[in-house]
Amino acid sequence: MKVLGIETSCDETAAAVVEDGRTVVSSVVSSQVDLHARFGGVVPELASRAHVEVLNPVVAEALVEAGVEVPDAVAATVGPGLIGALLVGVSAAKALALVWDVPFVGVNHLEGHLYASLLEDPDLELPLVVLLVSGGHTMLIEMVDHGRYRLLGQTIDDAAGEAFDKVARYLGLGYPGGPAIDKLALEGDPKAIAFPRSMLNEGYDFSFSGLKTSVVRYVKAHPAVDTADVAASFQAAVVDVLVAKARRAAFDLGAPGICLAGGVAANSLLRDALVLACKEDGRRSFVPSRAMCTDNAAMIAAAGWWRLQSDGPSPLDTPANPNLKLRVV
Amino acid sequence: MITAATKSADDTRDLGAQLATVARSGDVVLLSGDLGAGKTTFTQGFGRGLGVTEQITSPTFMLVQTYPGRLQLVHVDVYRLEHLQEIIDLGLPELLDDRSVALIEWGDEAAPVLPAEFLRVRIEFGAADDDRVLHVAPVGLSWGQRAVDLQGALERWTSGSELA
């Protein structure tokens, strides 16, 4: 079964075709294709207007690449995200499903990130601990079954990805900051500066606002500091907390595996540290390919396929919901 | 302009909560301050004052987050936006309805496309690590009429004395 996925929850306009929730047949992300040259359109940066202008060419490209005229179902991100942006993808997906007379299925964006990590290795032993880290979210989730979750903890202030971006911008490394810090940190000493590991031993919630502030304060007090050392020490502080909590959650729940998901899952240190921790503890680790970490529609199509198996199609009056939460057990 | 001093993140939250008692539906608050100054911390307190019970987190990535309360809190962050057109594309006027209070981080940048009446709150670092200085300025008639209420709400932090 080939599912067309559509993702417009934030910055990216994306479409993809995925077969049986596992095989990515095509995956198109607007920022990664030269739509201007091919379609003569403009590619503005953010917000809903951009989605309206590029959605049709992105969907067409995904279908052509996949060699599919009519998919077997259409999945779209219904939340969380910007309401104006979500509505573009949700409305388009419903219209296409209606015209093609195929099922529509609404997908939670966060669930999409989880399935991005399971694309290559979907044979799970449950429960699974999911560490979901992106620009907008930092969550520790227990996956009880497909489509059934328990939120263990989340950030009480800044998301981890946001801390990366803001520290990078402060250090003059540009945007997006994750890859810039990842690269620069390779040349620095992660032990050079002892940045705080906030809430390391307290429950499953996270806090990265204080870390961001202490980086700013340290650099102000030590203007001659080696930026690579700051990047490496900051990254180590974030990764230490993320891995320690995921590890503890897996231990507490007796979970046989930990799954890393979201844009920050592209970070080299985080990937290595999580895989190593799982190896030491005798657990399986699920780490998404780098291309699947950032927002894309293949993960939405995959999650949509699983949702169709467990719950069937979504009604066509399913609303876009900017504050959509994960479905908890 | 009212100048208030806080001694900790919790103190800044308490000030935000007090300030929220003066807020009415349709209000706009523009928040500015350097990275780490405590804009989201202030908003957490402000939300508590509006009766929001959900955890308020930074809206930088999502751009807009809304929270139900006695009045709905619309929490906006224009940090990532580089052009005024992008702020217009967010549909801010539609978000600023008569059941909500909008709090806009890095809002000074957005001022040209916002309503003419707002409360400006600027947060600066103080002498000690956790000290902050907040400059609160009503702009326009609606906030101007509430200047005395604002003074009253912030009295604890403007007298220079330690908290009881």
Overall description:
- The complex is a heterodimer of chains A (329) and B (164).
- Chain A folds into two domains: 2-114 and 292-311, Nucleotidyltransferase, domain 5 (2-Layer Sandwich); 124-288, Nucleotidyltransferase, domain 5, CATH 3.30.420.
- Chain A has helices at 35-39, 47-66, 83-100, 109-118, 160-170, 177-185, 209-221, 227-253, 268-281, 298-311; strands at 2-7, 14-19, 23-29, 73-79, 104-108, 128-133, 138-145, 148-154, 257-261, 284-286.
- Chain A is 43% helix and 18% strand.
- Chain B contains seven helices and seven strands; from the N terminus they run E-H-E-H-E-E-H-H-E-E-E-H-H-H.
- Chain B is of the alpha/beta class and 164 residues long.
- Chain B has helices spanning 9-20, 39-49, 84-89, 92-95, 141-144, 147-153, 155-158, and strands at 2-6, 28-33, 64-67, 72-77, 100-105, 118-125, 132-139.
- In chain B, strands 1-7-6-2-5-4-3 form a seven-stranded mixed sheet.
- Chain A binds chain B through residues 10, 44-50, 80-84, 134-136, 154-159, 161-162, 165-166, 169-170, 175, 209, 212-213, 216-217, 322-323, and chain B through 34-36, 40-41, 44, 55, 57-58, 60-66, 80-83, 85-86, 89-91, 129.
